[in-house]
Design brief:
With 439 residues, this protein is mainly alpha-helical. It has 17 helices and no strands. Helix 1 runs parallel beside helix 8.
Length: 439
């Protein structure tokens, strides 16, 4: 095999199961939105606020997946499977500790957190109810991140796919039963999600423990290694806080527009998330393969894989953007029957469609640098993109006080597209240089 050979079948074999697993999550999140949306506009607006807080709370710790994938993949590339699994176990113990602390903090502060968005009083009550219950699922969410990251580093994306499809299928069934069968309202959706997340976390943990025993990796927690894993994740925490800050600022700007525009924003955000997860499948393949190749010292191969995946990311982004634009008129009706919400959602979805080409490039480039362990640069780049976005979102928020809500919502999503463009520039400058591929 030549140094710059790219095994496209291996990449596809990793990306397709990752795609199915990642797409499963937004599909079922969309199903949750649809289930709650048919309760009315106010519960859907409340879900938008509470869901944003929960995703941000768990997303802060996404380094549990990203850093673990990079470390495990490099160890496997260097021919050290026991070291790889040990790193995965360290991530598991760290996720349990952080998850417990985060759950307690979010549950205790649910009411002021949801009040900060400035939504209507009715939407605020719905958001608080959902968040107080949903916080119980945060430990499971973090365990899922850590164990999934380990399996990806082992070049196994099939197992997380199967668990995700099974778990989210249970989630839909439970939500339908609790919300519309038992008439628990938005609380039923929260309980269904918590139960499903916990079942998924238990399943993946059992799989990791079996692999740890097979490689004789230590099962007990090691404080020194766990603290080292936490310390190595600090740049990714900074990166994630900046990213989640941009997302929360976007919801904050939409909240002053009223319940119908906020519900429309939730629809647009759900569609964006769907394709973000889909595009992230290529990023996951990049993390695993680039990490493995750099661990084995194959720099030329890592760079060749990067070029291939960036081309695929651009092409995939163009395709899903065209699909979103074509379906923009039809999609809102899947979430709500409110004509005002539909009217606001359609033009916002057209802006979402236009942003997919940039997103395709950004997600792959981000995955490459993740696999290379270039975490410090990723942190600074995301902080810079947030700094460029803040003036835009502040302006849009001000416009929302007196402007026409539909037009302001379009400007808001245009501002988020600008945030993605800044990310594309900073990531592109980095991967073209030599620093990220140091072995």
């Amino acid at each position: 095999m030549s140094a710059a050979y790219v095994d496209r079948r291996e990449i596809i074999g990793l990306a397709v199961p990752a795609f199915l697993a990642l797409v499963a999550e937004p599909i079922f999140l969309a199903a949750d939105s649809a289930i709650v949306g048919h309760l009315g506009t106010v519960p859907l607006a409340g879900l938008s606020v509470a869901g944003s807080v929960l995703l941000a709370s768990a997303g802060i710790f996404v380094f549990l997946a990203y850093a673990t994938t990079s470390v495990v993949a490099r160890a496997m590339g260097a021919g050290s499977p026991t070291v790889a699994i040990t790193a995965g176990m360290d991530g598991l113990w760290l996720s349990l500790a952080l998850g417990g602390l985060a759950a307690a903090a979010i549950a205790a502060t649910a009411r002021p957190l949801t009040a900060a968005f400035g939504a209507s009083a009715a939407a605020h009550e719905q958001a608080t109810t959902y968040l107080q219950i949903g916080a119980l699922g945060i430990p499971a969410m973090l365990v899922l991140l850590a164990v999934t990251g380990t399996l990806r580093g082992l070049l196994d994306t099939r197992t997380p796919m199967l668990v995700a499809i099974g778990g989210f299928s249970v989630n839909i069934a439970l939500n339908l039963a609790f919300v519309h069968g038992f008439h628990w309202g938005i609380a039923g959706s929260a309980w269904g999600t918590v139960i499903a997340q916990t079942g998924m976390a238990v399943t993946l943990t059992a799989i990791l423990l079996r692999r740890a025993r097979a490689t004789r990796a230590p099962l007990h927690p090691h404080p020194g290694r766990i603290l080292a894993a936490a310390r190595n994740g600090i740049p990714l925490v900074v990166r994630t806080i900046a990213l989640r800050g941009a997302i929360l600022l976007t919801v904050w700007a939409a909240a002053v527009l009223g319940d119908a525009p906020l519900a429309a924003h939730q629809i647009a955000a759900t569609v964006w998330s769907f394709f973000a997860f889909a595009l992230d499948a290529l990023a996951i393949a990049a993390q695993a393969v680039v990490g493995r190749d750099l661990g084995a010292g194959r720099v030329d191969t890592a760079r060749a894989v990067t070029r291939t995946l960036l081309r695929w990311g651009l092409g995939f982004g163009l395709a899903v953007g065209a699909l979103t634009a074509a379906a923009a008129v039809l999609v809102p009706a899947l979430f709500t029957a409110d004509p005002a919400v539909i009217r606001y959602a359609v033009p916002a979805l057209l802006v979402v469609a236009a942003g997919q080409v940039v997103a395709g490039y950004v997600f792959v480039a981000d995955g490459v640098l993740m696999g290379a362990g270039d975490f410090r640069y990723l942190a600074w780049a995301m902080v810079g993109a947030l700094a460029a976005y803040v003036p835009v979102v502040l302006l849009v928020r001000a416009l929302g006080v007196w402007g026409e809500p539909g037009g302001v919502l379009v400007w808001l999503w245009g501002g988020y597209a600008w945030f993605m463009v800044v990310r594309a520039v900073t990531l592109g400058l980095r991967w073209r240089g030599p620093a990220w591929s140091a072995t």
